[in-house]
Design goal:
Rossmann fold, 14 helices, 6-stranded mixed sheet, 8-stranded mixed sheet, about 25% strand
C-alpha cells in the first residue's frame, strides 16, 4: 500500500516507517503537526511537539514531501473513548475544537495532494489514548486509511535494542522523568540504554519513554539519504524539582550532511518479530505432537466431519430476554418473517427485535448497553453481506463478538443472535466499561476493523472476541492448521494481557481466565486444541519472563486449567474457513460495584474488605461428577463469590456400563445444579445433531425441573456436530450434551 507517515521526528515514528517499508509498503509522504507561533513545545495529550523545528530535516533526509499543520485545538475530550457509542448514523459531530480534529484536516490535506494513499504509519507503542484517536480519524469514510502500528504492544526493552541494531540514531531532546536531567539531553539511545534500563528496574520507568519520561529526535536512519547534524543547541529548563527536571533542547542551526560511506554500507534493518512468541512456539510443539496420536482421543467419532446435519429433531426455543441482577441476556433472536427474504433483512429484523426487547426493561436499555454478541449464521458465505449491515449498528467501543456457522439452523433461518447486555445505571459506584478495539495492523494481534472490539470489560468481567489465526501484519489467514491453533490462542492471550495492562499496568496474574469454548472445524482438530489448552498452564510469557502466568489465579498451582468445551462444527463453519476459533472470558480480579441486591446474590455484604476496586483472591475451580441412569454428569465451575462472577460447563456422557455414585457425590452435584439455576444469567445448550440425545435431554430437563425459572426455555440453542470436554485425566471425552453458563 502507499503510505503517509505521521512524523514527530522521534524514534518511534521513524522506526515504524522502517517496518512499513520492510512489509512491502511504499512511503509517499510525511505529515506532522506543530505548535502555533513561536512556541517550542505545546502541552499536548496527542502529539510530540518539541523538536518540531527539525522535523523538516527528517523529511528532507528521506527525500519525501512533508505536510505540516498548526495545532489549533486542545484536549477537550480526554476520555478513553473518542466519539459516540451510538451508530454512525446517529452519532453527534466530533468535538471540532479538539486537537484530534487537527489530524483530520492534516490527513485530508495529504489526500488532496496524494489521492492514491491507502495507509497511515503511526509510532504508537502503548498509548491507547493516541491510538484510539488516530484510528478514529483514519477510518472515517472520507479519510479511509489503514493504520499501520508495527510497534504496538511490543516489549519496550526488546524494541529499544532492535532500534539500536537497525542503526537508528536518535538523541534525547526532552527529559521529564525521575532520574533524568538536562545533562542527558543530546545523548544518543546507545549512550542512554544502560541508564534507562536501570531507571526501569528501580522506579518502573518506561525504557522507550511511554510514560513521558523523555522525547527524541532521529538524526539518522536506514531510510535517510543524509543524516542530521544538530549543530548548536540551547538547553531550556522548563521546571526543576528534586524528583526530576523538565528540560528540552532548542536547535539553533541543525542541518543535513552527507553520510560517511562506511556507514552507508553498514545500514541495518528492523527485526521482524516471529509470528509465534515463546509460549506460542511451545503451544505449536504440543499441537504437532498430536499428529498420529490416538491415545487421547479414544471414543471420538470420525463420522461427524462430513455428516449431513438433520435439523428435524431440534426445536429452537422462542426468542427471550432474561434478567439477573444488572445482566440482561437475549437468546434465540431470529429475523424470520414473511417480509425478510435475505440474510441482510433477517439481521435488520433481529436487531429490531433486540431494540424492542431492551426498550421494555426498566430502565430502558439500548444497543449501547450490549457487551457481547454470539452471531450464528447458516453459512459463512453470508458473512460479508451480513457484516456490511452489522457494522452500521454500533459506534465506538462496540461489543465483542464471536461468529460461527450452524448449518442446522431452523428452516428458512439464516441468522440467530444471542447477546449479553448490562444495566450500568443508578449505581452509587459507577461501572467502568472499557473496550479494547484495535483497528490498526501490527505484529501484536489481528486488527478488528469496524464492527466489534477485541475485548470489553464490564463489571470487571472481560469478554474476549472469538479469535482465529489471522496474521496480524496483513490480516491473512495462516494456512497450517497446527499453527492456526497456536496462533489463535496466542491472540486471545495477548488481548487479555493488553486489556489488564491498560488498567494502570495491572498484571494478568491478579486476575484469571474463567474458561471458554473452542470451536473446531472437524473432530480431528479436537486433540490438537486440547493439547494447546493444556499447554497454557505455566511457562514463560512474551518477554521470556517466568513470573507471569496469563491464566492468572485459576492456574496459580501451574497444573489446573480453566474449563474448556471443544465444539466440533462441519468444515467451513468458521470465519475465513479457519480450523479453530477460541472464545474466552476472564476477570480482572477486582471487586465490582454490586451487581445484584436480590436474594440470589452471592456477595458477602458483611465483609468490609469487599470494597469495589479492591483485589480478590477467592477464585477457585471445582469439578463435581455423579452418575444418573446411564449417564456420567460432570460439572466444571470457575467461581469467585466476592467478584460476583461464575463460569460453568455441564456435560452429560453416556456410559457403557453405568456405576452407582455415592450419596456425597450426588449431593455435591445437586448443589452445583442449584448454583447454576440461581446464579446463571446466560446459558447455551450445545446439542450434537449426530447423536440421538432424547434420553440425555430428558435427564437434563429433570435435573432442572426443580429450579425456580424455566432455564432451558431461556437458553440459547447451539446445534453442532459433537462436543468434547476435559476428563479427570485431561483426556478429551465426547459428550451427549453440554450446557455452558455464566453467572453472578
Amino acid at each position: 500500500m502507499k503510505v503517509v507517515g505521521l512524523l514527530s521526528g522521534g524514534k518511534d515514528s521513524c522506526y515504524n516507517l522502517i517496518h512499513c517499508v520492510q512489509q512491502g509498503h511504499e512511503l509517499v509522504a510525511l505529515a506532522t503537526l506543530a505548535p502555533p507561533g513561536s512556541k517550542d513545545e505545546l502541552d499536548s495529550y496527542m502529539y510530540q511537539t518539541v523538536g518540531h523545528d527539525a522535523v523538516h530535516l527528517v523529511a528532507e533526509a528521506m527525500q519525501l514531501p512533508l505536510y505540516r499543520r498548526i495545532i489549533k485545538g486542545t484536549a477537550i475530550n480526554q476520555r478513553a473513548e473518542y466519539g459516540s457509542r451510538a451508530a454512525s448514523s446517529s452519532s453527534p459531530s466530533p468535538e471540532q475544537q479538539d486537537e484530534t480534529e487537527d489530524l483530520y484536516h492534516l490527513l485530508m490535506d495529504v489526500k488532496a495532494h496524494h489521492p492514491d494513499i491507502e495507509a497511515v504509519s503511526v509510532g504508537a507503542i502503548l498509548s491507547n489514548y493516541q491510538r484510539v484517536r488516530v484510528e478514529h480519524v483514519a477510518l472515517r469514510p472520507d479519510v479511509n486509511l489503514v493504520p499501520l502500528t508495527f510497534l504496538w504492544q511490543r516489549s519496550q526493552s526488546e524494541l529499544y535494542a532492535e532500534m539500536l541494531e537497525a542503526r537508528l540514531v536518535s538523541i534525547l531532546i526532552k527529559v521529564a522523568g525521575i532520574g533524568l536531567d538536562e545533562r542527558d539531553l543530546g545523548k544518543t539511545l546507545g549512550q542512554m540504554q544502560g541508564k534507562l534500563e536501570r531507571l526501569s528496574a528501580m522506579y518502573g520507568a518506561h525504557v522507550c519513554g511511554e510514560g513521558g519520561e523523555y522525547e527524541t529526535l532521529t538524526i539518522d536512519s536506514p531510510l535517510f539519504k543524509q543524516r542530521i547534524d544538530v549543530g548548536e543547541t540551547e538547553t531550556v529548563v522548563h521546571s526543576d524539582s528534586g524528583f526530576g527536571s523538565v528540560s528540552y533542547l532548542r536547535l539553533k542551526n541543525a542541518k543535513l550532511v552527507e553520510k560517511q560511506e562506511e556507514l552507508k554500507r553498514e545500514e541495518g534493518w528492523a527485526r521482524t518479530p516471529p509470528l509465534l512468541d515463546a509460549v506460542g512456539r511451545r503451544t505449536l510443539s504440543a499441537v504437532r505432537s498430536a499428529v498420529g496420536s490416538s491415545s487421547k482421543t479414544d471414543g471420538l467419532s470420525e463420522s461427524v466431519d462430513s455428516l449431513q446435519l438433520d435439523d428435524a429433531g431440534i426445536q429452537f426455543p422462542a426468542p427471550s430476554i432474561r434478567r439477573k441482577g444488572r445482566y440482561l441476556v437475549l437468546s434465540n433472536i431470529t429475523g424470520i418473517s414473511p417480509t425478510t427474504t435475505t440474510p441482510e433483512d433477517q439481521l435488520r429484523t433481529a436487531f429490531t427485535t433486540i431494540r424492542h426487547l431492551l426498550s421494555t426493561t426498566s430502565p430502558h436499555l439500548t444497543l449501547e448497553h450490549i457487551t457481547h454478541i454470539n452471531l450464528f449464521l447458516r453459512t459463512q458465505t453470508h458473512f460479508t453481506r451480513i457484516n456490511a449491515v452489522y457494522l452500521k449498528l454500533f459506534g465506538v467501543s462496540p461489543p465483542t463478538r464471536a461468529c460461527v456457522a450452524l448449518p442446522s439452523l431452523p428452516p428458512g433461518c439464516d441468522v440467530v443472535i444471542s447477546a449479553v447486555a448490562f444495566d450500568d445505571s443508578a449505581s452509587a459506584v459507577p461501572f467502568d466499561r472499557r473496550a479494547l478495539h484495535v483497528q490498526a495492523r501490527s505484529f501484536w494481534a489481528p486488527a478488528n476493523i469496524g464492527p466489534y472490539s477485541q475485548s470489553l470489560v464490564q463489571a470487571e468481567k472481560c469478554w474476549i472476541a472469538g479469535q482465529i489465526a489471522l496474521v496480524p501484519a496483513d490480516s491473512t489467514l495462516e494456512r497450517e492448521a497446527g499453527v492456526q491453533t497456536a496462533l489463535s490462542v496466542q491472540h486471545a492471550r495477548r488481548i487479555w494481557r493488553a486489556t489488564v495492562n491498560d488498567m494502570g499496568g495491572r498484571g494478568v496474574e491478579k486476575g484469571w481466565v474463567e474458561g471458554g469454548v473452542c470451536w473446531v472445524d472437524g473432530v480431528a482438530r479436537v486433540e490438537g486444541a486440547r493439547r494447546a489448552w493444556l499447554c497454557q498452564s505455566g511457562g514463560v510469557d512474551d518477554d521470556g519472563d517466568e513470573g507471569e502466568n496469563w491464566l492468572g489465579q485459576t492456574n496459580a498451582d501451574g497444573n489446573t486449567v480453566p474449563p474448556m468445551l471443544f465444539v466440533v462444527l462441519p468444515k467451513d463453519s468458521l470465519p475465513r474457513s479457519a480450523a479453530v476459533e477460541w472464545q474466552i472470558t476472564a476477570h480482572t480480579g477486582r471487586i465490582p460495584p454490586p451487581i445484584t441486591t436480590d436474594a440470589t446474590s452471592t456477595d458477602d455484604d458483611d465483609d468490609d474488605d469487599n470494597e469495589p476496586g479492591s483485589d480478590t483472591s477467592d477464585v477457585r475451580i471445582h469439578r463435581v461428577s455423579t452418575t444418573l441412569a446411564s449417564f456420567e454428569l460432570v460439572h466444571s465451575i470457575t467461581t469467585s463469590a466476592s467478584a460476583s462472577s461464575t463460569f460453568g460447563i455441564l456435560t452429560l456422557r453416556r456410559l457403557a456400563s453405568p456405576a452407582e455414585a455415592d450419596a456425597d457425590a450426588k449431593d455435591a452435584f445437586t448443589a452445583s445444579i442449584r448454583s447454576c439455576s440461581e446464579q446463571s444469567y446466560a446459558t447455551q445448550l450445545f446439542r450434537p445433531v449426530s447423536t440421538r440425545d432424547g434420553e440425555a435431554m430428558a435427564l437434563l430437563k429433570e435435573l432442572l425441573a426443580s429450579t425456580s425459572e424455566p432455564l432451558l426455555d431461556q437458553t440459547q440453542m447451539v446445534p453442532c456436530s459433537s462436543v468434547h470436554t476435559l476428563a479427570d485425566d485431561s483426556t478429551a471425552q465426547q459428550a451427549e450434551l453440554a450446557l455452558v453458563w455464566h453467572g453472578i
